[in-house]
Amino acid sequence: RAKESGNSYRLFDPQMDSEAFDKMAMEHDLRKALERGEFIVYYQPYVDFRTRRIVGAEALIRWQHPERGLVPPLQFIPFAEETGLIVPIGDWVLRTACAQGKQWQEQGFPLRIGVNLSSRQFQQEDLVEMVQAALQETGLEPEHLELEITESMTMDVERSNEMLTKLKQLGVRIGMDDFGTGYSSLSYLQKFPLDRLKIDQSFVRDTHMLTHESAIVPTIISMAHNLKLHVTAEGVETPEQFAFLDAQLCDEAQGYLFSQPVPAEQFSKLLEERMTH
Ligand code: C2E
Ligand code: CA
Ligand code: CA
Ligand code: CA
């Protein structure tokens, strides 16, 4: 049985419904994709409100599927998370993004590179070693790397604090992603050695109107600043949103107003345009 290729025998398991079979097929495909190098990292700029310059890039994975074309992360990251494949995939993203960051730095663009961590990675005992290895391998200085975590990953406050402290000792930055969608409170945030809050795009979307969400944003920004955290607004799509956030002293913006996530070569062109215009 162990010698059989693929998972064909399981087709006859009466317990297995089609959903479970889909998941197995997906796991198989993801494993192959990693081996074949079908994943690709796109980059989306972080723009500084004061200088209007690109100061960083978020690494966002895509799957260049041979038949299905470019597959967005939300269609496969949850499966990768479920199966644990997110650990090697996440490690690949980390090393790829650090290498790219180093290359841009050598070209005269010292950007901060944001890399998303999944909760599975955050639970890995050797996460710190993995991050350290990626930095050493690529030569990227730790202060140019920012790891993005989410509130739901930090339920175990004591353990999270321990892990974040170790990561901070490496010299990397920590950003709290999708802020406002979880359960965090001010006191809770103070417990962690964070550098940045990223305001979730659901709050940014309505900032041009006088809605509940738009009232929340200034509060988050001033709270974050009181805690000495930098603030990035996600999902900035319109000049009105940009102006509103600017007036609220938000530090950085990310969103389609500047650029969608793009392949590294295209991002390099954005960097060059911003240098000469
Ligand atoms: P995220 O970390 O919150 O990333 C921001 C998402 O918002 C990206 O979607 C980006 O394309 C999208 N976005 C940026 N600006 C705008 C805008 O102006 N309007 C709108 N409507 N959307 C905007 P994407 O690339 O599809 O990624 C979705 C999620 O997948 C990410 O959300 C992140 O949670 C996850 N993800 C992506 N890459 C990785 C990775 O390498 N590892 C892990 N663990 N998760 C990843
Ligand atoms: Ca993110
Ligand atoms: Ca986010
Ligand atoms: Ca999000």
TrEMBL record:
Full protein name: PAS domain S-box-containing protein/diguanylate cyclase (GGDEF)-like protein
| Included stretch of the parent chain | 529 to 805 of 810
In what residue span(s) does the EAL domain sit? 23-275
